[in-house]
Write a structure and sequence with these properties.
Elements: H1 2-16, H2 19-26, E1 30-35, E2 38-39, E3 50-51, H3 52-64, E4 67-69, H4 72-81, E5 88-95, H5 100-111, E6 116-120, H6 123-126, H7 132-142, E7 145-148, E8 153-156, H8 160-176, H9 185-190, H10 195-202, H11 206-213, E9 218-222, H12 235-253, E10 259-261, H13 272-280, E11 285-287, E12 307-308, H14 315-323, H15 326-344
Parallel strand pairs: 1-5, 1-12, 2-3, 4-5, 5-6, 6-9, 10-11
Antiparallel strand pairs: 7-8
Length: 346
């Protein structure tokens, strides 16, 4: 029901041309936008990242709609001043340190003069990352018959759509409990998938990361050592994930690393404890994957919301709606609808 209401609002606003009205009424003063991979051939990658065209659309749309794209530091400084006639701000972020940020996205970012934050886990450039999502994608790309033993499921996937659906199902299974990622190693071994080789193929190496960190548009942030869901670790292990990652990046780059993205970023992966640990580790901000906008004045710098951009067919419309505050309106309407459902027994 919630999804139907949300989709109904989205389509109605799009076709009636009311997006600017909703932006004026519901959008916050700033939005942080989240990307991962920027893929030239996103169908070959089973549509797991963002297409080049969609990245370009987002950058151009924000500027045309009056959003000022700035660095995270500049955005937070501007919001703290609480200026009534200030423009709306947008911050562009990328997670994990994919090589296509430099080879594919950077020319567009330069063309649009767009500052950005790149959040890097230690295991990406060192090639030690348990990049289970890359391993699963590689299996489904290669094989037409896929067995995931710990899940107890077999997939027949000889075409693009069944491969994409199978990959989505297993990915969702892992996201339900991130400890399940460790159970996939025998599956990777059986299909002869090397996560280290995939890391080398997809992530920036140390020299490339050093070069990118010197770019005038770039800021480098932390993303823990192993990309672990911090809330599932004991306090000592979670603290080490943060401290060691920050130390590694600062030593490698010879630059301060003050910004953090919590791996997975959901309420189940990070919360108040992780926010305290991030501050104790020396970070100044922490971004989540929880959807939302930023307002003027006082805000929690260690629990910042973001809007993620995927590459499915409705992503342009979804991005515009989320940036314009349609999600806020949908949430308010669903809260109003819920009591009605209870009263009528539905």
């Amino acid at each position: 029901m919630k999804q139907l209401v949300s989709n109904g609002i989205l389509y109605g606003i799009h076709w009636t041309g009311l997006m600017p009205v909703f932006r004026r009424l519901f959008a916050g003063r700033a939005v942080i936008v989240m990307f991962h991979e920027i893929q030239r051939d996103f169908q070959r990658e089973l549509m797991t990242g963002t297409s080049v065209d969609l990245l370009q659309h987002c950058l151009v749309w924000l500027q045309r709609q009056g959003w000022k794209i700035v660095s995270l530091d500049e955005c937070l400084r501007a919001l703290s001043r609480n200026e009534p006639k200030a423009p709306r701000y947008a911050v562009i972020t990328f997670d994990d340190g994919y090589r296509d940020l430099r080879s594919v996205a950077l020319p567009l970012l330069e063309q649009n003069k767009t500052p950005f934050v790149l959040y890097v886990p230690t295991g990406a450039p060192t090639r030690a990352l348990n990049s289970w999502w890359l391993g699963l994608r590689e299996i489904f790309r290669r094989a037409d018959h896929v067995t995931i033993d710990p899940m107890g499921t077999k997939f027949e996937c000889s075409d693009f759509h069944s491969k994409k659906a199978g990959l989505k199902a297993v990915t969702q299974w892992v996201h339900q409990d991130y400890r399940r990622a460790a159970l996939l190693k025998p599956t990777f071994d059986r299909y002869a998938v090397s996560l280290s080789a995939l890391n080398a193929a997809y992530f920036l190496d140390e020299r490339e990361l050093q070069a990118l960190s010197r770019h005038p548009l770039a800021s480098i942030g932390g993303h823990t050592t192993s990309h672990a869901a911090l809330a599932m670790l004991d306090p000592s292990a979670a603290r080490a994930e943060l401290v060691d990652n920050r130390r590694y990046l600062e030593t490698l780059l010879e630059l301060p690393v003050r910004h953090l993205a919590y791996p997975y970023g959901t309420a189940g992966a990070c919360g108040p404890r992780e926010e305290r640990l991030a501050e104790q580790a020396g970070f100044s901000t922490g971004v989540t994957t929880r959807k939302g906008h930023l307002g003027d004045g006082s805000l929690n710098p260690f629990g910042l919301p973001r809007i993620g951009v995927g590459c499915h067919l409705e992503s342009q419309r979804s991005f515009e709606a989320n940036a314009s505050g349609v999600q806020v309106a949908a949430h308010a309407l669903m809260k109003a609808v819920s009591p009605l459902q209870c009263a009528t027994g539905h």
